[in-house]
Amino acid sequence: PSLNGNNYSYWKTRMTIFIQSLYQLWNIITNGPEIPTKIFNGQKFSKLDSEYNELDYKLLQLKAKAKHVIFCALSPSEFNRVSSLDSAKEMWDRLMVTYEGTNQVKDTKINRLVHDYKLFTMLENENISSMYARFNDIINALKGLGKVYTNHELVRIRKILMDKKNFSKKELKRIKGDTSKKEKDEKEVVCYECDKPGHIRLECPNLKKKKENLKKKAMITT
């Protein structure tokens, strides 16, 4: 994948898996490259180019290959950000600080994402596919920052979300069913005061008029 400035979490996850398939490169990126050295009078010195042996050349090739792997996965603007650095580790760390921030900034981002994770719920008019895509974006972002949830936790939260979704559907169906049944029942009801359908005697307009007339007559009489 190519890092374009807007997809760092996705890029980092993909690149980590890819580079770990060539674990010597991953070791160079995370721990720094080994420099060919020699021991002289009990002290360690860097070797001259003329002193390199076959093993030294292999180490240098791995160092260059680690840089090459990262370079090939960067957009032009991201390439310019790290092209002057000497090692793949420096490049990797620079990108990490740029997009994840210092440890303090990183912790702040983790707290915000954990908050989103704990309060995650389905949005109105959102389908299941969109809901899971949004949920997985949060999980992947947390994973990129080093916060990983177990499969048990993820299965639990997904089950809760599905239960909420199913509950909402059942409730909506029940409410619609009750409303339809009520409307149907109302149509079948016939008032025995006026013999018209749609209401019972207590709700009959004719009965209400009769009661009002009786009250008026009573007031006139008194």
UniProtKB/TrEMBL annotation:
Protein's UniProt keywords contain Ion transport: no
UniProt key word Lyase: no
A GO MF label: nucleic acid binding
All residue ranges annotated as the CCHC-type domain in the record: 191-206
Alphabetical keyword list: Metal-binding, Zinc, Zinc-finger
Protein name as it appears in the record: DUF4219 domain-containing protein/UBN2 domain-containing protein
Species, as recorded: Cephalotus follicularis (Albany pitcher plant)
